[in-house]
Amino acid sequence: MQSPAVHTYVALALHVGGRMRVEHRGEFELRAGHLHLIPAGDAHRVLSASHAEVWGIGFCRTCLDPARYGDLLAPLDRVRRGASPVVDLPAARQAYVLDLLREIEREQQAASALPVVSESLLALVLAEVVRASGSVGAAPAQRPSMVAEALAVIEARCLGPLSLKEVAEAVRRTPAHVTTAVKQATGRTVVAWIVEGRLAEARRRLLATDEYVDVIAERVGYADPSHFVRLFRRHHGVTPAAWRAQHRRAQRPDPG
Prior knowledge:
By secondary structure, the protein is an alpha+beta fold. Helix content is 51%, strand content 16%.
């Protein structure tokens, strides 16, 4: 049996064939038409599978503007609060959602990929999830764990001033208790999750905008641009400016 996986991004997995038994906030069986919603930081694993065919995507929750995408992210918020992570798509919509997932994959692999296109396609997928999920006010199946609450706080607030102490205060625990519990459940500390969310949004802005690096630093929670540059280099091996140049060159279509 494989060890549980924990992603730093949100994962959506559409099952289009076969059967798969998974462990994620309990055990359940997935079959064609089921969409599995996996918030960042949620441990999950496959227990068994038979001829399973799955299409999936991952995306940065922090990188989506809550003012624009809040309603579309409601099903994921409910999973965080303890609702079932499985959505049963209507048969009439399954082929459409699969086409959207395939188009997202093609767009992300294209030499001239445009982030705004992938984001627009993702919004259409999330809209289908909302429609298939039923009432936004549906009651959760269980009380959310303290770790889930802490990760939700980080997702919502990591682009502003946020410390371990403030996360602990938000979930009504001591800093030592919170960081130990989060590390045991996800393999990462609270501070590491804050940094991950900030750097993910920084990478998005480096590709999607022409903002100066010091502006991006401020927008992702770092008042000191030099600290941001050092942190970015530590995680990616190059400065933000060099990372932007490398990835923009890779996106340019071949003139030949």
